[in-house]
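Throughout this chapter, every protein is written as a compact record of paired, labelled lines. An example of such a record is reproduced below:
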Amino acid sequence: MLEARGHLVRQLRPRRVPQLTPVWLILPAVAYLALFFVWPLGVMVAKSFTDPHVGLGNYQRFFQTPAMTHSLWVTIKITLVSTIVCAVLGYVYAYCMVHGRPAVRRALLVLVALPAALNLLVRTFALQVILQDQGLVNRLLRDIGLTDHPLSLIRTPFAIGFGMVSLSLPFMIYPIYSAMRRIDPDLMFAANSLGAGPSAAFRRVFLPLSMPGLAAGSLIVFVTGLGYYVVPQVLGNNGSDQFISQHVAHYENDGQWGFSAAIGVILMAIAIGIIGLAARVVRVGDIMRSSVGGQ
């Protein structure tokens, strides 16, 4: 009887489920990255050194071609200016979100989220309609009497910068807003109680604590802006002020895979250098927490 009862207890006892180790859990993500990121990246780097001939010919051709170096300079210059404009506008916007009333905060969040939900190509063509000679901006300027003739806004570096700012601004606002939300309001009250005025408290307390969010947003906007293709292709011109990404597409369509890959490798090296420089100035952990985290 006792043996039968013991056997029944062993049968009813829940079986232990084998636990998967963390290594097995990350294998799908590793396989995905290896297949769709590492392998194409390796093929691109290899082609830059082997197509059409083995060596550094593609890189020598790039730096010996004035049009290529000029396009690289135009890309960096417009992207840098757009990042600075996004940083100023995004910081003010995020500050209003943090210190505004709940209704104002929700409205500002919706205003940021709605444009970001639209397709990039759709938003770019909408900007083309707004900036063209008979577009909304020129009609508004004529209606208020500021100009008699339409301004040349489209197909200019201004149009490219305007498009990049409008499309990249949410990526600046969210990290700054996340960093500002984590700042304890009591710190500002403590600074005021110790004799610091509003401007001094902001400059010495609030601004340094929000810098990781500003650094994260600036890094995201600048690195992604270097690879923009749709914006300069739709809003810019096809002359001397082309973005470097337009040359990548042009030489790839022309069958010059090696030279196109070399341009991509140079652009990637610049992006990695910017990230490495940012890591030396601001702690990487602070940047990641500001770009991902929140309260």
DSSP finds 14 helices and no strands in the chain. The longest helix spans residues 66-99. The chain has a mean pLDDT of 84. The CA atoms of residues 111 and 170 lie 10 Å apart.
